[in-house]
Amino acid sequence: MLIKFSCAHCRGPLEVNTTAVGAQTACPHCGKAITIPKQGIGPGATLGGFKVERKLAAGGMGEIYIARQLSMDRIVALKILPQHLGMQKEMSDRFLHELKLLARLEHPNIVTAFDAGEDAGILYFARALIQGESLEARIKREGFLTEQPALALTRKLASALAYAW
Asked: Which pLDDT score, from 0 to 100, does residue 39 have?
């Protein structure tokens, strides 16, 4: 994983691999000694070929970022599994297995999986970025759905479940 930071002396931009965290080196801009800081995932970090642009959401099963897939120059949703879960072999194997199954599905009502993997001990999953509001947000905004919109959504959900099954 690559992280970006600025030199404490000259504010020159630097990008280094996380394996260098804690090491001392000379700034290529001013030549002064700097210590590579420990940074988490955030804007500017590059994880598995995805450059993080901004955080989108967080929950119990990880954080979701908007990122750019560098190889395809496209914007994706990048989900990061919490490190405490990713460090458990059984959990990481299950995570990657489920994503491989999802990647086989091509249906208009199932999000498209682009990539998954591990970088510097961090498990990630890249998928299509879906624009628009969630069903939860719509219900909060409008209240419960009337019969016709509820049935239309149920049909789409049932179609996706039948396909996946």
From this structure: 64
